Amino acid sequence: MFAHIFKMMWQRKRANSLIIIEIVIAFIVLLAVVAFIRVSYQTYSAPLGFEFDNTWSIEFEPDIKDREKTGLTARQTLQVISQLPEIEDAHTMYFPPFIEASSSTTIDTENGEFFVLSTAVSDGAQQAMGMKLLAGRWLNESDNGQTIRSVLINKLLKDNIFGDGNAVNQLFDYEGDEKLRVVGVFEDFRQMGEFSSVGNYMMFRTDLDNPKSYYRSIHIWVKPGTPRAFEEKLQKLLHQSAPNWQFEVTTWQQLRDEHIRSGMVVRIIPIVISLFLMLMVAFGLLGVLWQNVTRRTQELGLRRAMGATAAMVQMQIVFELLVISLMAITIGFLIAIQLPISGVIEQLTWSIFFQSVAISTVIIMLLSVACAYYPSLIATRYLPADALHYE
C-alpha cells in the first residue's frame, strides 16, 4: 500500500510541489509567530527588578529655563509634599518606569562595546522601589565632592565589564576621558516594563542639595488604600508651591497598563496576520485536494474494485497530505534553523526554537488532517462502477 501511495505521489509531483511550497511558507510564518509569542511571554514573565504598587509619578514642566531656579522650586515642592500624611516616601527620578524614554550611551571596554541605559535618582529611591542590592552599597551623601563620579550598575553590565570578578570600587571608562567608580551592583532593572528585555543599566545620584541638580519628575509612595481622589488635594498643593508650573499626576499602575496595552497591540497584529495566512492555506489545500480527488475517480474506483475498503481509501488521501506536510516542514525547519545558528535574534534560544518548531509542526499536521478529511470522505463515495466511465 505504502509503495503504491509514494508512486502515485511521485506521478503528481508538480501539483504536490506547489502544495509543499505553500506549506513551507505557512510553517515558517507560523514558527516565527509562535517563537515571537514564546519570547514575549518569557520577557513578560521575568522580574522587573522593582515594585510599582502605591507609587505615583508627578511630571512637571517649569515656566523658567534657569536650571538653578528650577531645581530650587522642585526641591521646595518635594519638601512640601513629603509632609503630607498620605505620603510615606518621595524621591526624584529623571525617567519614571514604563515609558519608552531613557538616557543612553555606548561604553567601550576591553570586552567590547555595550549599549547602556541610565537614570538619576535621589537617595533612598532604590529602597523605596524595592530594588535588590547584590554587592556594595547604595549611593549616598558620601559620594558628594568625589573627583570620580560614583555609579550603580546592574548585574548584566557588571558581568559584561568585569566578568566573574569583583566590581565594587572598580573604575571603567565612560564618555570621553571620564571614568566612573562602581559603588554597588543591583539586580537587573527593567525600567521600560514587562515587554522590554533585560539590558545594561546604570544609576547616578541626584544631589538635592546641589543647586545645579536637575530632574524632571517626582515620585511618591502613598499609603496603601489611599483613594485616587487624593490627586485633587495633591494638585492644589503643587500649584501653591509652583503657581506657573504644569503638573501631570499619574500612577505607576496607569503607566504600566498603558505600556501593556501598546505592547499587546504590537504583538496581536502578527498573530492576526498569521491566522489569516493559516486560513488561506487551509482553503488552498482544501481546494487542491478536492480537485485532485475529482480527477482521480478512475484510480480510486479501481482501488475499490481491487478490494480496498472505504476506510483504506480515506486513509490514503490523508496519509498523502501528511507525507507532503512532513516534507514541507523539514524544508522549512532547515531554513528556519539558520536563525538560532547565526544568533541574529539574541532572545531566540535553542529551547524556545525547538519548542516553537514542535508547536508549529503539530498545528500544521492538524491543519493538514482537517483539510484532507472532507476530500477523503468524497473519495470513499466512488464505487468500482465509476471507473468504467473512463478508458
> Averaging pLDDT over every residue, what do you get?
81
**DSSP, total strands:** 11
Order of helices and strands: HHEHEEEHEEHEEEEHEHHHHH
Overall, the morphology is elongated
- The residue ranges in which pLDDT falls below 50 over 5 or more consecutive positions are none
CA distance, first residue to last residue: 24 Å
The Rg value, from CA coordinates, equals 32 Å
Verbal overview:
The model has no long low-confidence stretch (mean pLDDT 81). The protein has 391 residues and is an alpha+beta fold. Strand 7 (171-173) and strand 8 form a beta hairpin. Helix 3 packs across helix 6 (230-241), helix 7 (252-295) packs parallel to helix 11 (350-379) and helix 9 (310-336) packs antiparallel against helix 11. The strands form 2 sheets. Strands 3, 4, 5, 6, 7, 8 and 9 form a 7-stranded mixed beta sheet that branches. Strands 2-10-1-11 form a 4-stranded antiparallel beta sheet. It is elongated. The protein has a domain at 2-45 and 267-389. The two termini are 24 Å apart. The chain has 11 helices and 11 strands.
